[in-house]
Amino acid sequence: MKQVQLRPTERIDDLLTYDLKIIQSDEVFSFSLDAVLLGRFCSVAPKGRMIDLCTGNGVVPLLLTTRTRAEIWGVEIQERLADMAVRNAEINGLEERLHMLQGDLKTIHETLGHGQFDVVTVNPPYLPVPNGEQNANEHFAAARHEIYCNLEDVIAASAKLVKAGGKVAMVHRATRLIDICCLMRQYRLEPKRIRYVHARAGEEAMMVLIEGMKDGKPEIRTLPPLIVYDDNQEYCKELKEIYYGGKSSLEFS
């Protein structure tokens, strides 16, 4: 592990899989299960170019390096998180493959170009901006609410960045599925694979993983649901394999 300077309140956590390390802080939004599932669910380009939008501290690009030799870009609008993402690439010795940028996803195509990426991934904020009081911590508020971008912004940006035949993968709340599918089709991203994530058996889905193809033909595969917790209230076998680097049915190249 390379040495990098930590800011006040920052710490280095273990990502468990493949001995990866990650800089985090309680003052900003830490990565969650959503990002881990997205990093394992999405298709990957064996080489080529991939990009992760709303990358935060760069957790999804870090996880993707365990599945592909492609060059990976990460785009984050918040300066503090973008800086953490840069240093997370450095501490893992991945700065030549991971290119972490501070920027607005709505305009990043002006810098990186149209149709330059084989795969786009995104774990966007899930909630509309509330009318009343919102979280006083600007980093938590931006991670949870559509302050800097809404769902249409995310899908429009993804469609500009991905090449024809390329893939766009997203994790979001299951309740937004119809909105996601309608907007994907509006921007020529045909939904191709979907998987629901349930906290426990018998409960309704809390998240959805969905992947579309630019200019793809209409046809969608609904994969078996992922049940996070088993009867003993522990992570299911599949999730344990994901966290510790084993192969999972989430993976489809």
Automatic annotation (TrEMBL):
The biological process GO terms on file are: methylation
Q: Which InterPro entries match?
A: SAM-dependent_MTases_sf, Small_mtfrase_dom, tRNA_Adenine-N(6)_MTase
| Source organism, top-level taxon | Bacteria
- Which SUPFAM superfamilies does this UniProt record tie to the protein? S-adenosyl-L-methionine-dependent methyltransferases
Q: Give an example GO molecular function.
A: methyltransferase activity
Q: What keywords appear on the UniProt entry?
A: Methyltransferase, Transferase
Q: What is this protein called?
A: Methyltransferase
Native organism: Paenibacillus germinis
